[in-house]
Specification:
Two copies of one chain form a homodimer. Chain A is α/β, with parallel strands linked by helices and 197 residues long. In chain A, the strands form two sheets. A five-stranded mixed beta sheet of chain A has the order 4-3-5-6-7. Chain A has a two-stranded antiparallel sheet with strand order 1-2. Chain A has two domains: 49 residues, Helicase, Ruva Protein, domain 3 (Orthogonal Bundle); 130 residues, 3-Layer(aba) Sandwich (Dna Topoisomerase Vi A Subunit, Chain: A, domain 2).
């Protein structure tokens, strides 16, 4: 139906999460009709992400440099570590402006059913960092895998550092809810109500 | 919150129709996590559309060559012209597989309120083509601007070619409905029930 170049762009858009045929068509037709400079800007934004974006060597968050802006910030408490599944959870938490510690991004959750084991995640670096910490806040989602991961990390950290305060973010989120979809108030409550594990 | 390279990509995605902050974030984070080759494929699909896609010199449909695949097809009746607002209406109609004539893409609708006048649209070429046609089917959307355009074209074509059969696609579509969102059955009915203007 559509010429091959447009068809290829529709297919590219269809690889995005939640995008079906109709939506991909609308996106591609908008691109087809916009000035070439805007499409060039889009294409180079895509490629820039591949060339400059990387993982923070300290916490695993996304960054354009070596170390992310949170880890570089001397105003923040580096003795409090908020452990999340992914970089978008960091962004969601930062929006509450209620947390002044640092983060640790696991890049996934332990999931026996999907074959994701602790050694596949950014956990070893967390045990190193916990040595210098007063508190580790486990903020994985309120899902099965999120709870499994929190339980595993609690046991691992307590074994290594019996004095360390390990807390779990409060279940203000509805069961099965994803961290990055919660509103800011729910997230703020969840931070305030964290309990000792 | 997010590093500048990722922020720029989120902004690029936000320019797509109907895409808000959350959706743009999800798209950008998926790109951040996919292999570089896939992102390269995406970026070149974007740029290819700008370098190869153009308007068919006969009908105004989108094509990678000079003339679109419908206009090039000798199996189709070139004496029946189906007039639509945009290339996606051609794609929607082709899916019904019930039409064997050719198309004419106006690239918009006459809209006095938006300041779009007949001379801004691909209409002159239509009056040329109508000379060789037996029937012109007006298939603009069932909206105010769609009706205005159909009425304008009817008068224009009848004045020039008093013998020409000018028809209007039937109103199987709900009022205010857009052609490219209608299902195939509704579109098929609308074609079958077209009435002489």
């Amino acid at each position: 139906m559509y010429p091959p170049s447009l068809r290829a762009l529709i297919e590219a858009f269809r690889t995005l999460p939640g995008v079906g045929e109709k939506t991909a068509e609308r996106y591609a037709l908008m691109i087809a009709e916009q000035p070439a400079e805007e499409t060039e800007r889009f294409a180079s934004a895509l490629m820039n992400v591949k060339t400059t974006l990387r993982r923070c060597t300290v916490c695993g968050n996304l960054t354009d440099g070596e170390v992310c802006s949170v880890c570089k910030d001397p105003q923040r408490s580096h003795r409090q570590i908020f452990v999340v599944q992914s970089a978008k959870d960091v962004a969601a938490m930062e929006k509450t402006a209620e947390y002044n510690g640092v983060y640790h991004v696991l890049n996934g959750l332990i999931s026996p059913s999907k074959g994701i084991l602790p050694e596949d995640l950014n956990i070893e670096r967390l045990t190193d960092r916990a040595k210098e910490a007063d508190e580790v806040i486990l903020a994985t989602s309120a899902t099965m895998d999120g709870e499994t991961t929190a339980m595993y990390l609690d046991r691992l950290l307590k074994k290594e550092y019996p004095q360390l305060l390990v807390t779990r973010i409060a279940h203000g989120l509805p069961a099965g809810g994803m961290l990055d979809y919660a509103d800011e108030i729910t997230l703020s409550h969840a931070l305030a109500d964290r309990r000792k594990m």
